[in-house]
Amino acid sequence: MTTTPLHVVLGAGPAGTAVVAELRRRGLRTRHVSRSTIDGVDPAVETVVADVSDPESAVAATAGASVIYHAVNVPYHRQVAEMPVIADAVVGAAAHHDATLVVLDTLYPYGTADGDHITEDTPFAATSQKGRMRADLDRRYLAEHARGRIRVSLGRSADFFGPGVWSSTLGAGFFPQAIAGEPVVAFGDIELPHSYSHVPDVAAGLVTLGTDDRALGRVWHLPTVPAVSTAEIHRRVGALLGRQLEALVLDEPTPIGGFDEQFMAEYAEMFYQHRIPQNMVSTAFETTFGVAPTPLDQALSTTLGWFTDALTPAG
């Protein structure tokens, strides 16, 4: 029987998949858990199909875990109802196995508080249902740590972009259109600074939280470059492609492309994020753990390359 620490990743979206890749890059024993079969997995990675919203299934799927990474998400219209249920089951599994729990988190709990300079000390000011739900969960995770039931650290990310990220404001409505020379979709005031986190940096940050006890018991902002405007992102991607991008800017949460009516109806309460500055500062993480985010132009170039390959007939 092996005594090598086991790292269990819950969720097979772009973040969970990137965490698995980072764990393997570091040579760590890895299990990947999802509600459905995971294709194209590294043979060295154990896979388990399980619904971790069920407490017994969560305990079984994480058997033997030293660290559990919670990167599970659900469709937008089900988040408020289902994410607390999943959180309860995952906390129970971590407690059962005496495993460290690393949670992937969002900026939602802050609401509109101090958008120019968001740090881990920025107060929770969410008024949206999803923001209040996330804030309540964060308080619950940290309370469970404080009373000694589990060991936990929370890794907070801004909007994703990067390899494998389709469902994002810098995802399927942006990179494929930019590559094809078509108008790219953007939301709100694109001249305001807005933070975007590169998924490989998110994954590397979460694994650092899972392998360094200095991370325990608090929220961390995962490495993210200082915010620039979305218009500046457009300019830089245009420069990489050798042509200026044309933007289709939505001032309201109107359905378009992959952002269907159901999604946009749910996203309406979060649309404020594109009407205010949103600069997430990750200095505490970078200083404590001695890392820096991928330079923006490098991250955009890597992402363009990934989408270009994915959009070819063989991709």
TrEMBL record:
<feature type="domain" description="NAD-dependent epimerase/dehydratase">
    <location>
        <begin position="9"/>
        <end position="212"/>
    </location>
</feature>
<protein>
    <submittedName>
        <fullName>Nucleoside-diphosphate-sugar epimerase</fullName>
    </submittedName>
</protein>
<dbReference type="InterPro" id="IPR001509">
    <property type="entry name" value="Epimerase_deHydtase"/>
</dbReference>
<dbReference type="Pfam" id="PF01370">
    <property type="entry name" value="Epimerase"/>
</dbReference>
<dbReference type="InterPro" id="IPR036291">
    <property type="entry name" value="NAD(P)-bd_dom_sf"/>
</dbReference>
